[in-house]
Amino acid sequence: MVPDTERYAALDLGSNSFHLLLAEFRDQRMVRLHTDKAMVRLAEGLDEKRNLDTAVAERALDALHRFRPVLAELPADHIRVVGTNTLRAAANADGFLESAESILGAPIEIISGIEEARLIYSGVMAAADGPPRLRCVVDIGGGSTELVRGYETPQQLQSLYMGCVSFSKRFFADGIVSSNTVNHFNRAHRAARAELQELQHLAEGAQVIGSSGTIKAVARVLYGGELAEIKREDIDKLAAKVADAKHIADLDLPDLDSERRPVFAAGLAILHATFCELDIQTMQVSPYAIREGIVHDLAGRLHGGDRRADTVAALMQLWQVGTAQARRVGDTALALLHQLRPKTGSEELQRLRWAAQLHEIGLALSHSDFRKLGAYMIEHADLAGFAKTEQEYLAYLLRNQRGRIKPPREHYGFHPNPDLLLCLRLACIIHRDRTDRGLDGIKLKARDNGYRLRLPREWLDQNPAIEDLLRQEEEYWQSQPQALEISEV
């Protein structure tokens, strides 16, 4: 249960704009206290090799300074900053992320398109009225479009590589909407319909709700600045009017924000294509979107509703992971970590527990290659609640749970803690025979240049096979920056 008057901040680093939300919970109800937006069009800066243009990156970094004062007032675990499509795609994002985190004073999580869709759905549902019913949520961003079908929780999620900025760059780069030879609006419309093929079932029988800037802008243009329900006949007429224009500058549309104008034609083409391809007749417009979903997710993490824990439990059930062994390894790994670093933070403790719960997930596919396959599954799956770097961290631990230790792939923001790896590996050795075994007399301590593990001679005599594995482990750590020394008590 979320305490009264507890504040959270969500910052969405989108492909078109950056959005900040400061919210507070009052009697279990979220109240928006402050919102801020910077239109940066980050997706404009991606070239054909997916490199982010320096000038566009600098424009985005300059915009981040306005958000820092709000974030500085909150505890670190009450803040979540997420990067979406453009930062997922950018091949040279490391330098931007390093600078952005320095400005904000908070880490940035790059989330998958499916996680983005889940958070959007959560945010929209927070504002949905009436009893539970089947709903389809549509969100058109700068670089991607998310569609989600579900009831109280999402059941089917899709993330498509089309957005108002990326389509503007692709179809309206020079601002021309139609010429004597080419109608760019119609081309964008056809391209969007192609992306939406075979997704008609998402809206079938559901109340359709739209969220975020493009859909709000269309509603305001149609209905005199109001966020009214968008009707099929009205958007048909608007699409025809825009398709007949020669240039984006020629669009005479009251209530169209000047910052939205450069990407409006592309966003409208995608939205109208969605109406046509999914046979939508009416679309409600939600005042909430991903930011509100992030805030609810944050509150859940701190008060017993962490979606990531549910995801891990579902994976264990799906792949029939042995729960007894997962418990043994997890309990021992956490006990060793407590000896090593008594003040380890809660996120690291959770990460180690999840790694222990999932360390044998690959056994469902292969006995000999279970570590490699398990790591691949975790790194590349769509895991609700997890950022991409979190999945990469878990995959690194699973891949290196035994045998020679392979170094992590170096990139900004990914710095695996060797303490977690050591404790997981030792726990896997101690319970290799799938037997409950205590740690009486076993001591693990940090040294200046590594670790020291001390074990009672009596314990080693009772477990000779484990002693041999521990000696191998000592050899494996000799090649690491932190060596492991094993001795008898």
UniProtKB/TrEMBL annotation:
It comes from the Bacteria. Residues 24-299 form the Ppx/GppA phosphatase N-terminal domain. Signal peptide: none annotated. InterPro entries: ATPase_NBD (IPR043129), GppA/Ppx_hydrolase (IPR050273), Ppx_GppA_C (IPR048950), Ppx_GppA_N (IPR003695), PyroPPase_GppA_Ppx (IPR030673). The keyword Hydrolase applies. GO terms for molecular function: pyrophosphatase activity. This is Phosphatase. Residues 308-473 form the Ppx/GppA phosphatase C-terminal domain. Pfam families: Ppx-GppA (PF02541), Ppx-GppA_III (PF21447).
